[in-house]
Design a protein that fits this description.
The chain has 10 helices and 8 strands. By secondary structure, it is α/β, with parallel strands linked by helices. The longest helix has 16 residues.
Length: about 230
């Protein structure tokens, strides 16, 4: 495994589908935007598959538009207006996520999400999560979101750590790809918005069924790193 000699010090979490199940609220905002622009609503399970690459790509996929389409701005505006007013009506913790944040000791936690920063802030506040993270990088905070590594490199710089001392935890291919590009270890969670098969194609270091097993993995990695020195 790459970075074996580096003790993990920072865990960077994705948000949607990793720490929180936000799919119902995202679907409600998305369907509001589709209705407002004269389009047909979509089922939540369909919209869930579009989550992970930020609001603009989500709205483009849902509305059947390209990202450069002039019509898309109206859809995104309607989506954002509604979502900012209803960031956490039905949001809930993903399996094992809250326990993982409480069980894992001796690590700094950070957040790297493609969700627009304003909605991220509203959601973290609504779920009483704001104080859990030393650094938060949201959509628009860096030039390019995941799968590009810029958000993770910004977190490493802010915390003054080597990216190889960080672990990226997420439920999507973009999380694994961003983590690898930054030099982090990667953990994929298969209970989120992507299947184990999809995640395995991108070769994360570990795939977990839920974050309930995160503490075990982190302890194993820390012990192995100490022994190898």
């Amino acid at each position: 495994m790459h970075g074996t000699m580096f003790v993990p010090r920072v865990i960077v979490f994705d948000l949607d589908g990793t720490l929180l199940d936000t799919s119902e609220d995202i679907a409600a905002a998305c369907n509001h935007a589709l209705r407002a622009t004269g389009r047909r609503e979509l089922k939540t399970e369909v919209i869930r598959r579009y989550v992970g690459d930020g609001a603009r790509k989500l709205c483009a996929r849902a509305a059947g538009l390209t990202e450069g389409d002039d019509e898309l701005d109206v859809v995104v505006d309607a989506f954002m207006t509604y979502y900012l007013e209803h960031p956490a009506d039905q949001a809930r913790w993903m399996p094992g996520a809250e326990q993982a944040l409480e069980q894992v000791r001796g690590m700094t936690f950070a957040l790297c999400t493609n969700k627009p920063r304003r909605v991220t802030n509203e959601l973290l506040e609504a779920m009483s999560m704001t104080d859990r993270f030393a650094v938060v990088v949201g959509g628009g905070d860096v030039r390019a979101g995941k799968p590009e590594p810029e958000g993770l490199l910004a977190i490493a710089a802010a915390l003054r750590v080597d990216p190889r001392e960080m672990v990226m935890v997420g439920d999507g291919p973009q999380d694994v790809l961003a983590g690898r590009a930054a030099g982090c270890r990667t953990i994929a969670v298969s209970c989120g918005y992507n299947t184990r098969g999809v995640l395995a194609q991108h070769r994360p270091d570990v795939i977990l069924e839920s974050l309930a097993d995160l503490n075990t993995i982190m302890r194993r990695w820390c012990e192995a790193t100490v022994r190898s020195r």
